[in-house]
Amino acid sequence: MPVIKSSTDLRNNYNEISTFCHENNEPVFITKNGQGDLAVMSIETYEALCGKLELYRLLDEGRAAVKAEKKRPLQDVMKDIKQRISDGEI
Question: Please, which domain of life does this record's source organism belong to (predicted)?
């Protein structure tokens, strides 16, 4: 169940809302004049969310490559990575 607070609650109870976000790793939704306005979350939760989005993007990229038959054997990929490391590129 999402936690919804008003902008007045955010102003008057910032520490309580911050503690909730850090302890529960969940956002708090802030309303302004009765309408949804913001989602407040800890930096850790935000970074985890961004990491998931990046992973999903990479998975989609991989699926598209497989669909387009643009794939290579793992041994070839690993050989190329090792060579790039040896060359100081990575």
Answer: Bacteria
61 and 81 both lie in a single domain: yes
Domain range for residue 59?
45-86
pLDDT in tens, 21-46: 999 999 999 999 999 999 999 999 99
Q: How many CB atoms lie within 10 A of CB 62?
A: 12
Q: Are 27 and 18 within 8 A, CB to CB?
A: no
Alpha helices in 13-73 (DSSP H): 14-24, 43-67
**Is residue 21 within 8 Å of 41, Cβ to Cβ?**
yes
Q: Which amino acid is at 76?
A: D
Residue 37, H or E segment: strand 35-40
What are 76-79's contacts with CB under 8 Å, separation 24+? none
0.90 surpassed by pTM: no
